[in-house]
Amino acid sequence: MARSDDSSVLGQFIPLHYHHNMLSDGVRMRGFKTAIDYAVPLGGKVLELGGGTGVLSFFAMQKAGKVWCVERNPELVSKARQILSLNDCGKKIKVIKADAFEYLPPEPVDVVICEMIHVAMLREKQIPIINSFKERYLARFGNPLPQFVPEAFIQAVQPVEHDFTFDGFYAPIPILQNPNLIHEKTRELGTPMVYQLHTYRDPIPYQCEWSGDIEIEKEGSLNALRFVTKNILAVVTETKKTIDWHSHYLILPLPKAHPVSLGDSIRIGFSYKAGASISDLEETLTTEVRPSSSESRLPATGAA
Questions:
Q1: Could you tell me the pTM of the whole model?
Q2: Parallel, antiparallel, or unpaired: how do β-strands 265-273 and 207-215 relate?
């Protein structure tokens, strides 16, 4: 049996008590509820991969005729069945203990729900699981692929200045930020630069990588990068609008801070596998400050 910290299962065993945070996130819950209501046809068939407590399957069951909820964690399988039995329509959901990398529904489905998402597509296995599912589904059932919720994602990186002091204790560590709050300790030094944009129906590379320049728009001390993941839960074609949900931002400290001025730029490079650890991103990260004047280029970091 693989260890709980093994990279092959990284992010696949979310403890039950952590689900309280997800259930309490009103923006996340309302976004998924609205998107699922839009995507699921009346009487349709729905598969959820990585069901957790079963809440997203419950949303789907409000309109669906059949819902299969797949969960690998034995504790959550038992708890999901218990919780769903307490809710209207919940008993109609079939909770299945299985690995999302291996399971296929007994018949074609209209919608697949999968929320195994961490910022920057790190830690959790969203991309590998969706890629595996599409390959196996097409081999068994052929086209068309079902509708996916989320439908797409956008990833971006942004130079920032962040205060890493905590009651006088300086600790430059990776930090997750609620995207719906104002973070006074963070100063944006440039506009976020998109490095990935993919729909789940299309082929998605396993490698998340980018190399490019971001212009500095404010004077400050560049000491961190902010990684942003915007999940497009559904595209509402009638209104040409999207139903979105942002994962928590990741503030990643740089090994060394450098003063930057308006008009400078920072060259950023990184390459990591979807589902990898934060340290894997750090190990490949390189940055270089490029002054706007004719001064020599100053390296901000080596390999982080």
A1: 0.91
A2: antiparallel
